[in-house]
Design brief:
2 helices
Length: about 200
């Protein structure tokens, strides 16, 4: 889920930061550039771990800031296909579930990746929102937002940035994780605790 990625980047250092130690100033600029940003095919930047080298400091004609070549390590979030992750329910509608890890919210479990058989109960005041249930042996097990939910990663994609977006469309997500609950042991922890208690009895 988390890994190190070594990157080389040319970085101009703003003159006001030249009064600071060079590594401290570079670290601040790198965090401003990369922290909480998605890099295609690498993932979401969680932290600038360390700086390996700083070279250069050239001032190009017409530019008042020295430019350095910096080699550094980023801590990246990018789950792999097949990985099992714990998340919380962010929202639920007729299309499926949206899950959150707290620092990353673009995790979607489409309806066809929910356990079968299942059914959806819409809210009385909003037919688009509601609760999904897993139907198992004459019982129905809900997916609540208070549960810890185990899901399996189906895919990780990096959609291209759209030129235009309709006003009613969802906010653009530079990295999308598609998950599934349709395997043994997945879904809310409460499902399996309740099932175990029934079997013990």
């Amino acid at each position: 889920m988390f890994y190190l990625s070594r990157i080389e980047h040319k970085l101009p250092l703003p003159p006001p930061l030249l009064t600071l130690p060079i590594r401290e100033a570079m670290h601040m600029e790198l965090e401003k550039l990369f922290l909480d940003k998605v890099i295609a095919n690498l993932g979401l930047c969680i932290s600038v771990r360390d700086i390996r080298s700083i070279e250069g400091g050239f001032i190009f004609p017409g530019d008042g800031a020295p430019t350095y070549t910096v080699v550094f390590n980023l801590i990246m979030f990018r789950p792999f296909v097949g990985e099992i992750i714990n998340a919380k329910l962010l929202s639920s509608d007729a299309d499926g579930l949206r899950l959150s890890l707290g620092f990353f919210d673009d995790i979607y479990v489409p309806a066809h990746h929910l356990p079968n058989p299942n059914h959806f109960v819409a809210e009385p005041t909003n037919s688009k929102k509601g609760i999904w249930f897993w139907d198992f042996e004459q019982s129905s097990y809900p997916i609540h937002d208070t549960d810890v939910i185990k899901f399996r990663v189906q895919s990780v994609t990096y959609p291209p940035i759209p030129v235009e977006q309709p006003k009613e469309s969802k906010p653009f997500a530079p990295m999308l994780v598609t998950g599934s609950l349709d395997h043994d042991g997945l879904g809310p922890d409460s499902w399996w605790f309740e099932t175990e208690e029934v079997e013990d009895e």
